[in-house]
Design a protein that fits this description.
Largest sheet: 7 strands, antiparallel
Structural class: alpha+beta
Helix content: 40-55%
Radius of gyration: 30 Å
Length: 464
Amino acid sequence: MDITREHPEYKTTKAMLQKYSDLYSGGEALKARSHEYLERRQKEPLDVYMERLARVFYENYIGSIVDWYAATLFKREPVLAFDGVSKRGKEFFAAFTDDCDFGGTPLAAMLRRQFVSALVHGRSYLLVDFPRAAVKPLTRAEEDALGLSRAYLSGYTAQDLINWSRDDRGKFEWVVLRQVNAHRREFESNEERTEIRWLYFDRERYRVYRSTEINGKRTEPELADEGEHGFHTEKIVPLFELEISEGLWLVNKSALLQLVHFNKSNALAYALSMGLFAMPVVYTDKPWKDIIGESYYLNLGPGDRFGWTEPEGKVFQIAADNLTRLQEEIYRVCYLIHQAMGSNSNGYGQSGLSKQRDFGITQEVLRGYGDTIKDFTKRILRAIEKARQDELTIDVSGMDDFDIGDFSSDLADAERLLSLGIESPTLKVQVFKKLTGKYLCDVRQEVKDRISSEIDDSLLKTLS
């Protein structure tokens, strides 16, 4: 197969994905491509348009909204539960949650990064891989000693997945990921060199291709590595997809509004700037050939008049009001109605119940995101557990409370539940595990596992 070939769907969405990345990032990333987003007026002189491009600015509401959702959702990390007798497996997952990529990145931070990417592009991906072995180990102990059973994650965006195939159930049959490193210039040879890698994974094997681009000329891709990947016995492609539904794909819902706001705000700013440089006007019937400037003077006749052009400002007020409405609409389509109302200085007052109802909509959206993240995390962890054969039962909970002060209400609900007098030690253990998991969400997984084990031991003592 041609490893560089792009999927037809990828070709049609490539420009859109780049646009969404720019709208989220803003700053110099968007300014470098502002000519693609700042509309040129009909018959606008090129020098005027270039001047407007030089002055371009961007009020980035989309970036703030996406980051707010990510920060709020991950205010409390997902609660991971590993039940079973495999001490080796629990030790691995405790280390894995603290460093999931051999780079010191905690699992929660990796999930948050992929969640942001999914809100921007609609989907993101995590590749699960195992270290390569020069010699195949003979025993599991040897495999652990060499670190070959130490699974790790690599994050990818929708822009990195360039080709794929799915079966009738929508599962990947094979994928091709493309990695492009940053440009770097060799000063001695004056060469601009770029290295490109293509990673091919099917349900059993992987292949790595490399190519080098020097001063715009690319070499043919060459096979650099191949072999069986860590999930070949399970016959699955080790790329896991985090997909956001169309209704919750925030950047897709607000991108057009953000672009309209971008163009109108820049047009208004340019018009205001031009209005500050008032043009002199001379009313006279005689031929006018005088040069006007700060160091010059005017010689006016008896019937001549002099004045300055100045806009009345009505269209400016209309434009400013429209920008405010666009800003509110961006927040509204992103389910942040309470913030949209707060941004309008001329808005009407809301009752406490109305504000609570508006924020309730946002909380339901956050819970929907939380369910998606929990399902995504369970699929990854359970696949790793199955490949490692740790014989653990893995569950993921939490991500349903979005205010740290809510723990008091959780505690009150638990007290009321336990006060019902239900004779079930298992119920008490599960309630205690959930409470401790939420309250201690930011401690190391090893400590969480130890607390969970101690709670289980108390259950055994009760039953005995």
